[in-house]
Amino acid sequence: SKKEPGRVRLVKAVAPSCRGIGSAPQVLYTLSHRHEEHLIPYSLVHPVQVQTKRPVIFSPSLLSRGLIERLLQPAESGLDFNTCLPEPIQPSERHDKKIFLLDSSTPEQALGVRLQSIQDIISQDKHCLLELGLPSVEALLRQGVYPIVIHIRPKNKKHKKLRKLFPMCRDEGVMEEVCQAEELQLETLPLLYHTLEPSTWSCTDELLAAIRSAIHSQQRAVAWVELDRLQ
Q1: What confidence tens digit (pLDDT) does each residue in 181-218 have?
Q2: How many CB atoms lie within 10 A of CB 13?
Q3: What is the mean pLDDT of residues 24-49?
Q4: Which residues pair with 81 in a beta bridge?
Q5: Which of 12, 91, 120, 150 is 20 to 30 Å apart from 172, CA to CA?
Q6: Does residue 16 lie in a domain region?
Q7: Are strands 223-225 and 81-83 parallel, antiparallel or unpaired?
Q8: Assigned domain for 155 exists
Q9: Which residues form the Guanylate kinase-like domain (predicted)?
Q10: Residue 17 counted as domain residue
């Protein structure tokens, strides 16, 4: 009840005739002036305690490259972080489940990251900072890799603060369109993600510090995964 109205998720009841699995009856929750057909169902999630360092995926994905470059700049960051540089992927390999393509890749020149490259960094006891987009999250989970997904919520609808920090994203229309699309994708992920609220940072250094703190806290936390989606 303390959540924002837009983030409340409800479960819809199933007719008795459709209850073939499990004997526990499902409960129908409603809000005033909310019709039953508009309810959003809960998903069943399971806790996974990951012992190895988890790779990191950022949202909005347009910020990934800039964030990775800055997080790797201080010499001491090499102790905690590393990255897999995207490499050209041949057409014959593009359907390989152990290769994850970048969202911005074109059919003529696809770029991607290999599972082995990610595993090599994990074996070094480091977080692998990835340029991959949200569609790669489920593919990674299917390979037994549990990424940390960090969503940076813009300070305002125009995303001026993010465009100022990352000049490559100055196109207001593109930034707004990508942010809106990825916010919808976040709600469909089979993995719990972490959101950095606008109040947690006001400059680049504070944002990077907040990201480092979030990565370390998420590493210690349980990963909640919707395992049914991965079967």
Answers
A1: 888 889 889 999 999 998 888 888 899 999 999 999 99
A2: 16
A3: 60
A4: 127
A5: 150
A6: no
A7: unpaired
A8: yes
A9: 8-216
A10: no
- Kindly state the average pLDDT of the residues 20-37: 47
63 contacts 136 by C-beta, under 8 angstroms = no
* 3-class SS letters over 185-210: HHCCCCECCEEECHHHCCCHHHHHHH
With a cut of 60, say whether residue 5 has pLDDT above it. Answer: no
Looking at residue 55, what DSSP letter applies? P
Could you tell me which residues come within 8 angstroms of residue 143 by beta carbon, excluding any fewer than 6 positions away?
97, 98, 115
H helices of 13-156, in order, are 64-71, 115-123, 136-142
Structural domains counted in the chain:
1
Is residue 172 domain-resident? yes
Q: Which domain does 210 fall in, by range?
A: 56-220
Q: pLDDT tier at 103 (50, 70, 90 boundaries)?
A: confident
CATH of the domain at 152: 3.40.50.300
pTM: 0.78
Give me the residue label for tokens 């593919």.
Answer: 139
